[in-house]
Amino acid sequence: MTEVAQNVFSFEGTAVNWIILRDGRDLTLIDGGWPGDAPAVEESIRSLGCRPQDVQAVLLTHAHVDHMGAVKDLHRRFGIPVYTGDVEVRHARREFLEQATVADVQKAPQELLLPWMERVLRVGALDDPTIPDATAIPPGPLDLPGGPVALPAPGHTTGHLAFHLPGPGALVTGDALVTGHALSPIDGPQLIPWFFTHSEPEAHATLAAFETLDVDVILPGHGEPASLPITEAVAIARRNAARAAAERGLS
After folding, report:
1. Has residue 237 got a pLDDT over 70?
2. What CA–CA distance (Å, rounded) separates 131 from 121?
3. Fewer CB in 10 Å around end: N or C, the chain?
């Protein structure tokens, strides 16, 4: 657990992160790891001296199994409402699915692939959780602990959201901007590996939107939290993306 700012906490599960915002005893949970991370998510809540019942809402950046797996368990057991963007609500309901296939994942560096697959298969990588009653939220400030502001951040998925925390100057980026990934050979700010991305042009447009924010703390879905200006993080991510594209013969 890392308290990146007052009452803003980042927790790492099985090669994926979730965020908890605290206001007194009331909490907002952003994302929730794989299905098998459910006990760890619950323990992270209790480590703050709170109970799952103190979570006022779960916010989803996007409806992939490594971000919503444990959320389904919390929602079922404790009745915690789950919110995401209107497009991603349909994704959470599995009206459509934008997720890398086995063939896509096999494009990863082979020396990284097997250790990652062994880990994630143990925590439910082949599960297909749905949250039929996920609720859509509009972009903008939310009346929840931590005062998150929902921002469209498409690219990794069509309906992906980020959550801006204006008070501490932080940005929960989900998979729109990460600082590492078990299937990436590099560390530091970067786009999620290309074979996980639904639309690379939209992913780059999201980076441009991030540059306009007053942010110097980055809370990614994968990799360590980072304390640096968002403009610097975006510049590094672009350089890394250009190098990756060159290695794929795209430039």
Report:
1. yes
2. 21
3. C
